[in-house]
Amino acid sequence: MKKTIFTLSAIVALAFTGCMQDEAPPILEDPGNSGTVGNNTVSVSGMISESTTWTNDNIYVLNQKVVVPSGVVLTIQAGTIIKGTEGTGSLASALIIAQGGKLNAVGTATEPIIFTSINDNIEVGQTAGTNLNETNSGLWGGLIVLGYAPSSFSGDVDVVQIEGIPADDTFGLYGGEDATDNSGVYQYISIRHGGALIGEGNEINGLTLGGVGSGTVIENIEVVANVDDGIEFFGGTVNATNLLVWAQGDDAIDIDQGYSGIIDNAIVILGANSDHAFEIDGPEGTATGSFTLRNSTIVGNAVTENGEYADYRSKAMGRTENIYAYGFKSSSDVELDNDGVATNYNDGLLTFGAWEIVLPTGVSQVTDIFVNKAETVDVSGFGSTATAVSEGTSTVGATTSLLSWTYANTKAELGF
Known about the structure:
By secondary structure, the chain is mainly β. Helices cover 6% and strands 36% of the residues. The radius of gyration is 21 Å and the shape is globular.
């Protein structure tokens, strides 16, 4: 996770220089029809100029960046398949819901809306192809949603540029003062094989939420095989329910910049290249924000080089509760990363409810998993709300049956 931050004056300057450095996305005047390139295939690119609907009898191909700008509503029918083209840097494909734009993407358990790669052989009417799996990542970009909700930025600037969008693309701005901002409805969506590189060490997340407000509905979202983070919350106030991240390359659920919503009922399944199940950062400016992360099941493995439970960093503040974890290595930990977050723990700004953990071989007591790495700040009681349990006997964690519809449940034979 890397952030690119700009002051308002720098952003204004970019508006004038961007067209010289990176040609603005072309206007697609009739995105429903004029881009048709073959049977049941519609190619789309650039700014969508008017509200439109994508239907489930077509496959929509994102040719580089497709932007839903302010005042425009894109509706996607249940069962629709969207494929992103390959490309890196400014050529990376992504669907971007800019500030003031809306996406109404309402899938169902039997007809999810699927974002995947152009290389995926999935066809109209299917929920999975046959040629890709959880090891295939970075084949396109991702889904980026940007709003006007409050966030805490370094320097207390009002707006910044989202990671994953080059600095000269000014439709990448997010942040503001409208806590109830509405960026649309996102239900039963599966996002697969994304995370295209835009710069050294900087990839697009599966689902990026920048300054998204509480008027937005986010329920039943799956991210599979993304190079960078699965789902990242950059500030904002949106709540998110029923999430699953499988085999991400970095962190599964990442919180930054004073995010103040509730994340409820989440499943994380680490893959061979995964880092943390949770990475939690705090506010960057003087504005504060407190998250709630609850009712989650996180699954590690013995082969992931990193594969940590959670890392709490840079003055993180909020509550994590009702977490069930199993399958991790003996070296995996829940970590307070620095003095700022350790101080917040001592001050009651970062709190923990029940955790139930299946102890890895070689770990004798559950509190050994909870590690304070602050240099000068001591803490007491860290890990005292955690209990060691046997696998299958947990009383906390996610209600996994609510995510039985997912591609991961089918492909990994999870038995939800």
